């Protein structure tokens, strides 16, 4: 019982620090993004958007699957860590060489001459990133996100300041390039200093083979997922202007600040924790059920609420010149509502060692997504149709992911939907009320935004109380536990 309590405490603490890490990191970068959006033009962000898919694929190749294999393994030796470290470093160099070589062709494809140097510089980040992978794996295995939070905050603040200074001095798109590279460099240096692990001069083929067998299928699945999750950058960049891509790029970043933070935090924390429960079906199922209900209780109203207040929010933060991104942001929020459910369901497949099924599902989902995109392009629905395709794909993906993960732990898609139905209904009512209030409240965007947020919180909490939502009390209890822990630390410091 004591072990279970300690694991529960460690999970909650790890989730808290992981969410704080991602929110602070996303929040700081978001503030920097707002400043840069005021200083730069939409086409500057569009140029960076053209490189995103290639950089994302590079990172997926370097640490896509083998890192997860290391986290899942109960006992990992120094030889194992060193072997994977050198493999990651070798792959990062190979990826950089490929991007450096193909940069002119990519530039020609998009008809943007500046892309050659931009892509060659940004791809250096893959090599820098490879130095920090094992450090993060070790911290994640220990559910230690406190140190990762410190690293993220420091690197985000420092790189953000550098980027703003560059933008003020007329660097244009290069301010964003410098921000990206400086943040990756600072992160790697700090992780090496704080974690203290160093590679040995050893490479074991047997170790590599053991981890690659499991990780290679995750790598393939992550590669497919990365390509498709970033395919809109390619399509929009090719079919529309850089300004349009700039609107989409910032809409993605704004929507991800909430949904992506919670999703990645859940993936990082639940994966090592679920891995420890993999042999206890009842405990794993119970923990899975509780986590999806609590996180949905938080994520659904946040994403739906953001969609409802989008006009005032974007006008206030980015200014009149960015209002064209409102509709894209709203659609992406609807898609982002389910990201946390994708993450937790797919974690179950990895925990159960079903990397084969993980890969098969990735292929099936992307085939379906391909047909959806083709239909949207064929019907000439424009950019709105393309982004709408992402929303439809997200909901279809949930049905597929939950069906197969449900078979592994005896928790079906129908049961998941049933458990989340009341939360969904309360969220829908809240979002409709908040969106409708936009025509009633004053035209001042700041005042309107504050009033809409307050109204949304009141309506959602009131509905949760009326419907006797158990998740409301659980979330409140978790918040109080951290407030009390913070008070105790402050008292110790004051003494």
TrEMBL record:
Protein location: Cell membrane
Q: How does it sit in the membrane?
A: Multi-pass membrane protein
A Pfam family found in this protein is Polysacc_synt_3
Q: Which residues cross the membrane?
A: 12-32, 44-62, 83-103, 115-134, 154-177, 218-237, 294-318, 324-345, 357-378, 384-404, 420-438, 444-463
- InterPro entries with a match to the protein in the record: Poly_Biosynth_Transport
Q: Which CDD domains match?
A: MATE_tuaB_like (cd13127)
**Key words, A-Z:** Cell membrane, Membrane, Transmembrane, Transmembrane helix
Family that this chain belongs to: Belongs to the polysaccharide synthase family.
Q: PANTHER family per the record?
A: LIPOPOLYSACCHARIDE BIOSYNTHESIS PROTEIN WZXC, PST FAMILY PREDICTED COLANIC ACID TRANSPORTER
| Name of the protein in question | O-antigen/teichoic acid export membrane protein
Read off the lineage from the record. Answer: Bacteria, Bacillati, Bacillota, Bacilli, Bacillales
């Amino acid at each position: 019982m004591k072990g279970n309590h300690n694991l529960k405490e460690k999970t909650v603490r790890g989730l808290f620090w992981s969410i704080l890490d991602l929110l602070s990191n996303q929040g700081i970068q978001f503030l920097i993004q707002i400043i840069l959006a005021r200083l730069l033009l939409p086409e500057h962000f569009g140029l960076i958007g053209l490189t995103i898919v290639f950089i994302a694929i590079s990172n997926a190749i370097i640490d896509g699957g083998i890192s997860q294999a290391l986290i899942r393994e109960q006992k990992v030796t120094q030889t194992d860590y060193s072997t994977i470290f050198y493999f990651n470093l070798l792959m990062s160099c190979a990826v950089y060489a490929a991007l450096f070589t193909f940069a002119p062709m990519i530039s020609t494809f998009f008809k943007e001459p500046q892309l050659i140097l931009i892509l060659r510089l940004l791809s250096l980040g893959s090599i820098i990133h490879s130095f920090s992978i094992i450090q993060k794996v070790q911290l994640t295995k220990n559910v230690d996100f406190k140190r990762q939070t410190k690293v993220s905050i420091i690197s985000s603040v420092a790189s953000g300041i550098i980027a703003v200074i560059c933008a003020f001095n007329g660097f244009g798109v290069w301010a964003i390039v410098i921000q990206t590279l400086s943040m990756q460099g600072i992160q790697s240096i700090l992780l090496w200093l704080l974690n203290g692990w160093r590679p040995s001069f050893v490479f074991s083929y047997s170790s590599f083979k053991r981890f690659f067998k499991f990780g290679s299928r995750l790598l393939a699945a992550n590669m497919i997922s990365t390509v498709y999750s970033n395919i809109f950058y390619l399509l929009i960049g090719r079919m529309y202007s850089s300004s349009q891509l700039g609107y989409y790029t910032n809409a993605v970043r704004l929507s991800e600040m909430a949904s992506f933070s919670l999703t990645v935090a859940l993936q990082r924390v639940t994966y090592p924790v679920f891995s420890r429960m993999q042999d206890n079906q009842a405990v794993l199922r119970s923990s899975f059920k509780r986590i999806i209900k609590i996180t949905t209780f938080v994520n659904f109203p946040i994403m739906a609420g953001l969609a409802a207040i989008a006009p005032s929010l974007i006008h206030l933060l980015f200014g009149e010149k960015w209002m064209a991104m409102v509709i894209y942001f709203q659609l992406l929020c609807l898609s982002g509502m389910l990201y946390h459910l994708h993450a937790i369901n797919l974690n179950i497949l990895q925990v159960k060692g079903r990397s084969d099924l993980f890969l098969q599902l990735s292929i099936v989902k992307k085939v379906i997504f391909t047909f959806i995109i083709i239909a949207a392009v064929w019907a000439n629905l424009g950019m709105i149709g393309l982004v709408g395709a992402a929303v439809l794909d997200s909901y279809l993906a949930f049905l597929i992911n939950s069906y197969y993960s449900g078979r592994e732990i005896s928790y079906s898609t129908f049961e998941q939907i049933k458990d989340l139905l009341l939360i969904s209904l309360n969220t829908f009512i809240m979002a409709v009320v908040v969106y409708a209030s936009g025509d009633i409240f004053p035209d001042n965007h700041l005042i309107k935004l504050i009033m809409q947020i307050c109204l949304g919180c009141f309506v959602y909490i009131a509905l949760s109380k009326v419907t006797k939502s158990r998740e409301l009390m659980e979330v409140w209890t978790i918040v109080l536990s951290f407030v009390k822990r913070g008070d105790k630390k402050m008292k110790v410091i004051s003494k």
